[in-house]
């Protein structure tokens, strides 16, 4: 595994190999997905009481709420620094 854990805010991490998608929570379908996950006990709130800015869906159908913007989280999956030391070794230097 090249890219194991990714910070999703407030010292909360997600296994990058389990993430299917990162979505914006603003639309009605995303709100329904969030409510359905809550009923099924598959909702993980990692916002620390802040506003939800991203919904992360995993391969186990868990829904993770984050207060970090989706594009910021997506960037953390690909950046070859800090938390992604193995990726840094694989990618060529710039």
Principal-axes geometry comes out as: globular
Q: Output mean pLDDT.
A: 87
Largest sheet: 4 strands, mixed
Number of helices, where a helix is a run of at least 4 consecutive DSSP H or I residues = 3
Radius of gyration from CA coordinates? 14 Å
How much strand content do the residues show? 25-35%
Helix content: 25-40%
Tell me the number of strands: 6
Low-confidence stretches: none
Q: How far do the termini sit from each other?
A: 22 Å
Number of domains: 1
Describe the structure.
The chain is of the alpha+beta class and 94 residues long. It has one domain (5-81). It is built from three helices and six strands, in the order βββαβββαα. The protein has helices at 28-39, 70-78, 85-90; strands spanning 5-9, 12-15, 19-23, 43-45, 54-58, 63-66. The longest helix is centred in the middle third of the chain and has 12 residues, at 28-39. The protein starts with a strand and ends with a helix. The model has no long low-confidence stretch (mean pLDDT 87).
């Amino acid at each position: 595994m090249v890219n194991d854990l990714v910070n999703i805010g407030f010292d909360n991490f997600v296994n990058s190999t389990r993430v299917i998608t990162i979505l914006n929570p603003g639309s009605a379908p995303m709100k329904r997905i969030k409510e359905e996950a809550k009923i099924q006990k598959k909702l993980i709130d990692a916002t620390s009481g802040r506003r939800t800015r991203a919904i992360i869906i995993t391969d186990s159908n868990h829904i993770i709420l984050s207060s970090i913007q989706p594009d910021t989280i997506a960037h953390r999956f690909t950046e070859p620094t800090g938390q992604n030391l193995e990726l840094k070794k694989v990618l060529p230097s710039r």
